[in-house]
Amino acid sequence: MRIFGLPLMLALFFSCASQKEIVQNKKGRCAIKDSVQYELIVFDSGFDFWLASHQNMASQHSESYYQSMNHQYAIEWNRRYATGDPRINSYIDYSLNRDYGFDFNYKLYMYFRFFEDTNRIKLIPGNRSL
C-alpha cells in the first residue's frame, strides 16, 4: 500500500528556511526584514515523472488560484484525515495568510491532483479544471 501523506507533510513543514536581513533606509535607520522560503519535497517515486508530464500547465492559472485551491484541498484532506481515511495519514497546516510563492503553491496543487489520479478519487468533487 502506498503511503503518500506522511513524507509529503514532513517535507512540507520541515523544509522552510528563515532568513533575517538588516536593511538600512535613507535616514540611516535599520530595520530587520524577515524572509521565509518554502520548498515542497515529495518522496513519492511516481510524482516527479507525473509532474514533468504536466509541467506545461503551470502558467494556466494565477498564484491566487493555486492558493485558493490548495486551501480547499487542505480542508478536505484534513477532514478525511480526521475521519480515518487510510489513504491519508497526516495533517496539512496550510494557511492563506502565508506567502508560499508560486512554485510551492503550484507543486502542492499538482501533488493533490497526482493523489487524485493515482488513487482514482476526487478530493473536491466536481473540480477538474486542469
How would you describe this structure to a colleague?
The structure is a single chain. The chain is built from four helices and two strands. The longest helix has 20 residues, at 63-82. A two-stranded antiparallel ribbon has the order 1-2. The protein has helices spanning 5-14, 47-54, 63-82, 102-119, and strands at residues 17-24, 30-37. Residues 13-22 have low confidence and may be disordered. The chain has one domain (5-119). Helix 3 (63-82) crosses helix 4. The chain is an alpha+beta fold and 130 residues long.
| Beginning-to-end CA distance, first to last residue | 27 Å
Strand order of the largest sheet: 1-2
Helix fraction by DSSP (H/I, runs of at least 4)? 40-55%
Strand content: 5-15%
Mean pLDDT: 78
What value does the Rg take, in angstroms?
Answer: 17 Å
Low-confidence stretches: 13-22
**How many domains make up the 3D coordinates?**
1
Could you write a compact summary of the structure shown?
The chain has helices at residues 5-14, 47-54, 63-82, 102-119, and strands at 17-24, 30-37. The protein is of the alpha+beta class and 130 residues long.
Please render the helix and strand layout as text.
Layout: H1 5-14, E1 17-24, E2 30-37, H2 47-54, H3 63-82, H4 102-119
Antiparallel strand pairs: 1-2
